[in-house]
Amino acid sequence: MRHLIYPVPDPELPFLGVHFTRRIDGAIEAGPNAVLAWRRNGYGRAAISARDALSILGYPGFWRMAPRYARIGWSEYRRAWSRRAFVAELARLLPGLAPADVEPAGCGVRAQALDAAGRLLDDFVWAEGPGMIHVLNAPSPAATASLAIGREIAARTAARAAT
């Protein structure tokens, strides 16, 4: 593998699905699974915070969203806990891949904004208040370090200062 390998994204979902990324050191990362994190900074499959879980379960938007994505959610959890299922999904992009070819790696956390109606929000939701400009739902470190987003923040700040 010499390049990135990504599936065609599902326009109904804000997630890419499994993919392959060649790292700068030449190693290859495969992933991710998109599962609900039961802890805000839970960098592990089994990381749970009672406070965070209760916050999720107490949010009406969660209960409106959950039935809509239950099938894919269970599929993602299955892949997160089953190496065989995970590799089978990867092998759709890279035929011949076997479970022995893959070794466990770390977990990451990607925030996904959800409104009270249960809709998964698109990237880059802007929330502004007195003296504040927030970029919500920035999907990756690459997005949070984006010069284009920085220019937009600067333009919004300048526009507010002019009023």
Give the structural class: alpha+beta
Distance between the termini: 53 Å
- Give the SSE string: EEHHHHEEHH
How many individual domains?
A: 2
- Specify the helix fraction band: 25-40%
Which helices and strands occur, and which strands form pairs?
Elements: E1 19-22, E2 28-31, H1 50-57, H2 60-65, H3 70-81, H4 83-91, E3 125-129, E4 132-136, H5 141-144, H6 147-162
Helix pairs in contact: 3-4
Structure summarized in a few sentences:
With 163 residues, the chain is α+β, with helices and mostly antiparallel strands. It has 6 helices and 4 strands; from the N terminus they run E-E-H-H-H-H-E-E-H-H.
Main attributes of the structure:
alpha+beta; 34% helix; 163 residues; two-stranded antiparallel sheet; 2 domains; 6 helices
What does this structure look like?
This protein is α+β, with helices and mostly antiparallel strands. It has two domains: 1-109, no CATH class; 122-163, no CATH class. Helices cover 34% and strands 11% of the residues. The protein has six helices and four strands, in the order ββααααββαα. It has helices at residues 50-57, 60-65, 70-81, 83-91, 141-144, 147-162, and strands at residues 19-22, 28-31, 125-129, 132-136. Strands 1-2 form a two-stranded antiparallel ribbon. It has a two-stranded antiparallel ribbon with strand order 3-4. β1 (19-22) and β2 form a beta hairpin. The chain is globular, with a radius of gyration of 18 Å. The termini are far apart. The model has no long low-confidence stretch (mean pLDDT 88).
